[in-house]
Amino acid sequence: MRGCLAAAAAGTCVVAGFFSSHVEVTNQNLPLAYGDQPGMQLFLWIGSAFIIWVCADVALN
After folding, report:
1. How far is CA 44 from CA 1, 11, 22, 59, 60, in A?
2. Where are the alpha helices (DSSP H) in the chain?
3. Over the stretch 1-53, which tens digit does the pLDDT of each residue have?
């Protein structure tokens, strides 16, 4: 149950962060091109934290 809640919370934050950013054009280097926007920072930090959490969970179990 805890994993489902974490995935739902991370997914919600990532989607909200991405859609609150003003991304005019697609750029392969998303962090450098749009990293100064608060929404994109939320997207990048939460997405990274979720990936780290999943990797740690897999490694420890």
Report:
1. 25, 12, 14, 22, 24
2. 2-20, 30-34, 38-60
3. 777 888 888 888 888 887 888 777 777 887 787 788 888 888 888 888 888 98
Rounded Cα distance between 2 and 8, Å, is 10
Round to whole Å and give the CA distance between 21 and 10.
17
Concatenated DSSP letters for 31-46?
A: HHHHTTSHHHHHHHHH
- pTM reported for the whole predicted model: 0.68
Look-up: residue for tokens 């450098």? 32
| CA distance to 7, 46, 50, 60, per residue, from 3 (Å) | 6, 15, 11, 14
